[in-house]
Amino acid sequence: MAQQNRMTKVPAQKLAPDPYRDLARFVPSASDPWDERKAAHLMRRAGFGARPEEIPAMVQKGMNKCVDQLLAVTTTGLQESGTVTLRNGEQAILSRRYGSRPQWLDEMVNTPYPLKEKMALFWSDHFSVGTKSYEQEALLVRHINVFRRHGLGRFGDLIIDVTKDPAMLWWLDNNLNGKPENGKPKLNENYGRELLELFTLGVHAGYTQTDVREASKCLSGWSTGAIDQFVYKPNWHIVGDKKFLGGTIYSNGQREVYDLVDRILGHPASAKFLVTKIWKYFVSEDPYSGLIDVLADMWRKSGHDIKFLMSTIFRSRYFYSSRAIKKLVKNPYEFVVQALRASNANWRYYRYLDTRLVQMGYRLMEYSDPSGYDDGIAWIDEIAMLTRANFANDLTRYGYYSQFDPNREINRVSLKSARAVVDHYLHIFGVDDIPPGPRNVLYLFMDLIDSGYQQFTFTPTKVDEKVRGLAHLILSLPEASIN
Amino acid sequence: MAHSRRDFLVGGLATGAALPLVSGSPLLGMANMLSASGRILVVLQLDGGWDYFNQIIPVYSKEYYEARPTIGVKDKSGSTLPISSNVSEKWPVYAQPLKDLFDRGDLAVINNVGYPNPNLSHFESQARWYTAQTDPASGAHGWLGDYLIKGYKGPQTIPALDASTRATGAFEGARVPVIGGTTTLIRFETDPRTAADNYVESLAMQLNASVPRAEPNLEYTARIMEHTFYLVTQLQAASQYHRPKVQYPYDVNITPYLYRVAGLITRNFPSHVLYLRLGAFDHHSGLATQGGLTGRLPTEFGSLAGNLKAFLDDLQAYGKGNDVVVLLFSEFSRRFGENGSAGTDHGHGGVAYVAGAPVKGGFYGKYPDLTKATTPYTDWYPDFDKDSTDFRQVYATILDRWLSVSSKTVLGTQYPNLPIL
To answer: Cβ separation of B190 and A130 shorter than 8 Å?
Structure first.
């Protein structure tokens, strides 16, 4: 019997990818448990990382309840004008980006609704705007609020809200679409083109220049009154039936835009385009096409419900597999906010942090290109890495910007050795899977000063000196930039 | 682009076997490979709005001497120098180094440069030069920012560097490091309060980056981090240890910055666009004393000219002379008539220079017609008219003929090139 078994044994084969298995709900088992590593992974992707004390509770709660909690968001917006006092006491002037960006950053760090902020960050990159004049600065927070309110709603509604958003109307010129010249409404195709190319269908998705023009005709008259107000201008609207994607949108004034959005979402490219983008942002850079096809189909059947899509993703087996965990690159906001949360440091001066984030390459609410940022390793270059390391120093050093207290943490957990301190902080910052080489370097660092060997001791002065340096080193590891 | 770069780096490393720690990594030898085609642009932006009429003297103009009874440079031996046989204007003696460059064909003088609808504010005028637009919007890209984004296709390792203490807006839109003053360099920072272990901390950081990783994104990040150490070291060395091969007329506000730029170029630092803001040419008073030969402009402009020549000679001595073109401009020039304190107030138009061995030297553009000057001269400056040169023609020429990209792609419009390159 045994003999026969050996004879028929087949070599381990790589299973063909199965989208239904990969998208099925993750069920923990003894060999693949719901543990701290997976909980931390969920919080990094669906938010901006966990605070260390949150993780054990998440493990207790189980995956499904954690995802339920992430998906239960409020629809409140950020304050749009005036001055706001941030949680650290800093005053932020909201009519300027150096004030409005810190307001949002404070929210990312301290929010009880991390997925709401993460979706808003994703959508603000997807529907990216900048400004063309100083007067438009005040519109930027309102633009973000569209995503904070509807970022987990239905995609069709989100497109309509974005299309009406004054910042977008100004940025891609739809406020001028249909403005009469010599008594006749004159077409401006800028928004219509990007709506198809960047926001919904993608480049080379099979539509033509005629489709762009006809879509833009539907959009004519959707404009601004006062700078911060959406207004439909009937006599700017180009009247007549529109031939779009092989069908007809019948002449119907401003209602045509709703038809237009329905037609776009009915096109097979649209769900695939967006699902691919979301997957690459939240899960992994290289989803196989069969998986995207199945998920796009599920999403379409849900009525393009974004909450359904995110729920499916964050509960999937793929999401908790080695194909997803630690496979993405942190963007600057993910890097900075995760570090602030993991360290439990009190950051005292967000306006300064904003300049660091800009040096890392992210100008929030100030996209210079309608296509948003390239993700992944596009974030990694020499200046970005230098700035990440120097931010890590800002965060952990004695000084004005940040209150980081290693003695408090060391007293909270009882650690017995320098090695235990290293292991503990690697764990806090979510990089306990570094290779043995760097781990040994960190062990050595604890017992070295510039003049030679000096054994680590648990005195407050020594803890301050070495643990600040240790945290700086850990956040400067290449692993700390991986999500 | 990012992906092809990763393929290059990872592909390059795959052949390099195990990575030694700290030094001797294959990446360290890669710096020269990463540097651009060899053509370098140095921009010297002279802040404050420099005076044109005392840089290039219209010795034939009675209006000039009426407008500048005190500061006007008299046309006599020891005061002026001829430019060339077919140019009626003359150099002031303090421009001798420029004359030397001009005479050997290494200096293009671009007269009467400006833009429509002059604006007399420093800030607004600088914004025009930065954005190459005549009515720049908030958030508009800088011309060199757009060059880096839309035009430049070469290696992405710090292709440009802002070497000033005052950051320029010309790179707006692109991510370009500002290296600050001569003492506050780009560096890996450590906590000064824990100075006892700063060295081991830096060493540990570098060691940690040098260890090979398996995952592609992680390995790429680690290699970039490792390379960052190399570049920072190079930058510091270039800034602190440049050995000039010629004597510069030492000026604390100019020379150390040119040393740094020369150091970067001669050490093959990968940046090929280097930007410096220098000077304080806002001479509302004391621009010059009687006869025009002493005072703030003669001193500061003379020093600039001398340092420029030394810089180019230094690069030549290092064998880099044919690789470098220098653009000098100021946000505007000043009024025609002197004010009550021997200075001049904000005006428009003026002169730009393009210098270096690759330049086709000469006297370009049309000097302003001073018979058009209206009184009071203290209010008059040359308007932008058919005799003027649009400043974007200078940019377009540099982009098309030196940086070898389509200026139309970068600037959005094709401006006629000047025959200076």
So the answer is: no
